[in-house]
Structure to design on (400 residues):
């Protein structure tokens, strides 16, 4: 567990308890002590960044069982730089030319069910290079015959996204997707930012895999690209082109190396046990409450974890799922739940990013708010449309 400070209080920030997951908007994760120590040690020192990246490449290659890798600013910048690399190769004139594409191959295939937002649209990270997005299939079905039919002499790459946000059915499996693409020598780039598995996606056929350093790995804000050496090389060279504004500092590289090495030594079984204790506590507190149904569910992309699914019946609970989530967020401390499905009358509690004692605070606040809602005679509950309108207005008002 990382050493705690009063930095939020010093900055005048509200305390936050994260039961949403490894969300960038919340700071992603608790950075592991090994990364904090490494970052502190490198900050006063000068290094040759290319040399440091070579050290990172060796560590990334070892843990992902790939040929090479590099650290970039984020998984999103990993998408942009890898796509750009397939367009330019190592041709410096072309690298400097982007996003003007000239006679380069520019088409990038991606299944429509994978065209999601992770805070920004996935396809925007592709289009930033000057590439053209070529959608495959529909939201609920993609077919290998259509994928094959869309490949042409203009195709430069195909992007495959693994995320809880994507359509979870009717999509082409990665192994089949890669097999078709490789028949036509089209490289496959897998965006697997939030995944535990550091080797499986490459072994399933991805030529490049992009991970987040600051999510399950517990590193600083950074992205990790791993895969074929020639493609990694071409993507890394984008640092002197469109990737310049996506550069990562020495602290990000060193912190990522430390987080990766700490991952090898982490007590994954012990962590799962503590997470289960949090889930059991929440289940005990919520089970039997009128208008509330709580169940544990596995991660949709097969990460080795479970979350608590909380379904709210407004007519019985006296509150909607989005109102309850909003009240949790606006309290002190602010408790942020995983609310991307709130319009369906539910949210999730993620146990992966809690400090000691925080699971109990979450349980107590939930019970307090549910009791208050039950006692209230309020009948004009805010609709989800009204809630989203208010949220959007608040976002537009920044920084006021």
């Amino acid at each position: 567990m990382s050493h705690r400070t009063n930095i939020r209080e010093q900055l005048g920030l509200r305390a936050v308890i994260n039961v949403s997951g490894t969300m960038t908007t919340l700071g992603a994760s608790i950075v592991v002590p090994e990364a904090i120590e490494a970052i502190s040690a490198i900050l006063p020192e000068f290094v040759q960044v290319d040399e440091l990246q070579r050290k990172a490449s060796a560590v990334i290659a070892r843990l992902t069982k790939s040929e090479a890798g590099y650290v970039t600013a984020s998984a999103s910048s990993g998408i942009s730089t890898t796509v750009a690399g397939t367009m330019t190769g190592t041709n410096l004139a072309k690298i400097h030319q982007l996003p003007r594409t000239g006679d380069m191959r520019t088409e990038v295939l991606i299944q429509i069910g994978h065209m999601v937002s992770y805070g920004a649209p996935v396809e925007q990270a592709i289009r930033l290079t000057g590439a053209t997005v070529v959608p495959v299939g529909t939201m609920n079905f993609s077919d290998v015959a259509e994928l094959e039919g869309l490949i042409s002499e203009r195709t430069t790459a195909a992007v495959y996204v693994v995320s809880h946000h994507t359509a979870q059915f009717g999509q082409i499996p990665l192994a089949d997707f890669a097999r078709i693409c490789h028949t036509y020598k089209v490289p496959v780039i897998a965006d697997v930012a939030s995944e535990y598995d550091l080797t499986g996606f490459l072994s399933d056929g991805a030529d490049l895999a992009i991970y987040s350093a600051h999510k399950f790995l517990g590193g600083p804000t950074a992205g990790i690209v791993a895969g074929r050496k020639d493609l990694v090389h071409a993507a890394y060279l984008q640092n002197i082109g469109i990737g310049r504004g996506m550069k990562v500092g020495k602290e990000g590289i060193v912190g990522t190396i430390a987080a990766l090495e700490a991952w090898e030594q982490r007590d994954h079984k012990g962590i799962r046990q503590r997470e289960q204790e949090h889930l059991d506590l929440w289940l005990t507190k919520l089970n039997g409450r009128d208008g509330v149904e709580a169940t544990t569910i596995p991660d949709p992309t097969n990460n080795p974890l479970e979350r608590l699914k909380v379904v709210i019946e407004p007519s019985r609970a006296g509150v909607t799922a989005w109102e309850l989530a909003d009240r949790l967020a606006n309290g002190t401390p602010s408790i942020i739940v995983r609310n991307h499905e709130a319009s369906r009358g539910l949210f999730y509690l993620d146990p992966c990013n809690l400090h000691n004692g925080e699971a109990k605070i979450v349980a107590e606040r939930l019970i307090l708010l549910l009791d208050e809602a039950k006692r209230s005679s309020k009948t004009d509950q805010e609709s989800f449309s009204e809630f989203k309108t208010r949220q959007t207005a608040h976002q537009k008002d920044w920084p006021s």
